[in-house]
Design goal:
Elements (H helix, E strand, L loop, with lengths): L4 H12 L9 H11 L5 E4 L2 H5 L6 E5 L8 E6 L11 E3 L3 E4 L7 H19 L7 E6 L7 H4 L11 E6 L5 E6 L1 E10 L3 E2 L10 H11 L3 E4 L2 E10 L5 E2 L2 E10 L2 H20 L8 E10 L2 E2 L5 H12 L5 E4 L5 H7 L6 E3 L2 E2 L7 E3 H17 L9
Parallel strand pairs: 3-6, 3-7, 7-18, 8-17
Antiparallel strand pairs: 1-2, 2-6, 4-5, 5-20, 8-16, 9-14, 9-15, 10-13, 11-12, 12-14, 19-20
Length: 382
């Protein structure tokens, strides 16, 4: 019971060479359906596109299995980061690359290929397995929009695996931070910068001073903060009356996010007080949860099974954490336990991205082993 390596590579290349930036996943979804329709007639697209503005919703495929076992979920996302030209792949005995002018798209096409190969082997070899729910989400790279708008009413599984991890193969991600996005509007007073600058209050200066005092970057081992966007002003001869900036705070602990938000507001308050004129600048600070944290107990039977199975393969599993969010954050918040497996993708989101074939094959092997072992696990039975 081993994955077909040549077919696995071929499937991946076919997927990777279809550009599928967020909200434009239609063509790659059609290929996934083509690959899987032989094994299931239960596939449909949910209505996430209506809420995201994309060309297609999340793709959900159900594979019949042993009904004495609880349904099990396998998931990867259809989209990649932005790409505006065709993707050309280059294969070597150890890795697959793009031609260097674009991303490769191993994030997350490697995961999709592994799921497709898993189904093919299970059916070809007639391996007993639970009913499987395959979830291919859209717009994961765009703040997990696909998973946030997934029709969870059709998902019965409470456990599963997500294939979206660029760490070494042995690393199984069980923890990831929550993320809060914030938007700040700073209001000053316009004036002619050459004729009467003293009559104006610079919103840009106020915002810049506040940002210069904010703790940004790595705050501690589980907390980061960033200002990623700023704008303002109407002309070089006008004291700017408005300035806007946006950013995010990430942490594995909610109280730390709240503490950083309080600190940011204090920086803004102090900055408004720096103005010596009669008119003081003001600000509005708004924040919202982008995605919740991921926190899977190491003693849950799925991590234990993963660790044991990796040991049988000659590897020592390492329960890991990530600084990024994935669909697992959303699934976990819905009560679906989904550790994140490494697929061999490396240097993602860059034109240097590549797929390490050794880890790619090992991940496919691991997925097959786990699914075939579920019938032996008491907690996996109804």
């Amino acid at each position: 019971m081993k994955p077909n390596k040549e077919r696995l590579i071929s499937t991946f290349i076919s997927l990777a060479e279809i550009p599928s930036p967020s909200l434009k996943e239609g063509k790659v979804a059609k290929l996934v359906i083509k690959e899987l329709k032989k094994y299931s007639s239960q596939y449909f697209i949910d209505k996430a596109a209506e809420k995201t503005g994309g060309e297609i919703g999340n793709l959900i495929v159900k594979i019949d299995g042993d009904n004495n076992l609880k349904p099990f979920l396998l998931s990867a996302h259809l989209d990649t980061v932005a790409v505006n030209k065709s993707i050309k792949t280059r294969a070597t005995p150890r890795a697959i690359y793009s031609d260097g002018s674009t991303i490769l798209g191993a994030d997350c096409k490697a995961g999709i290929a592994i799921i497709i190969e898993t189904i093919k082997i299970l059916k070809e070899k007639k391996i007993s397995h639970p009913p499987l729910e395959l979830v291919f989400t859209i717009s994961e790279e765009n703040a997990l929009l696909g998973a946030k708008n997934l029709d969870f009413s059709v998902i019965k599984a409470k456990t599963g695996l997500i294939f979206d991890n660029e760490q070494p193969f042995e690393n199984i991600i069980l923890k990831a931070p929550a993320a809060v996005g914030f938007e700040v509007k700073v209001m000053g007073k316009a004036a002619h910068s050459g004729v009467a600058p003293e009559d104006g209050v610079s919103a840009i200066k106020t915002a810049a001073y506040a940002i210069s005092k904010m703790k940004l970057g790595r705050i501690d081992s589980e907390t980061t903060a960033n200002v990623g966007f700023i704008q303002g002003g109407e002309g070089i001869n006008i004291v700017p009356s408005l300035s806007f900036f946006e950013g995010e705070i990430r942490s594995k602990k909610t109280e730390k996010i709240k503490r950083i938000e309080k600190h940011f507001k204090k920086c803004l308050e102090n900055s408004t007080l720096m103005c010596k004129g009669k008119i003081k600048p003001s600000f509005e600070f708004n924040s919202s949860l982008k995605f919740p944290d991921l926190d899977i107990n190491e003693k849950h039977y799925i991590p234990i099974l993963l660790s044991k199975t990796m040991g049988e393969m000659g590897f020592k599993a390492k329960f890991s954490s990530s600084g990024g969010g994935t669909d697992a954050n959303i699934f976990n918040s819905k009560g679906i336990i989904t550790p994140i497996l490494s697929t061999g993708m490396r240097k993602v989101h860059t034109n240097e991205e590549y797929l390490d074939l050794k880890d790619f094959f090992n991940c496919s092997d691991l997925a097959l082993r786990i699914i075939s072992k579920l019938k032996e696990i008491k907690n996996a039975r109804k």
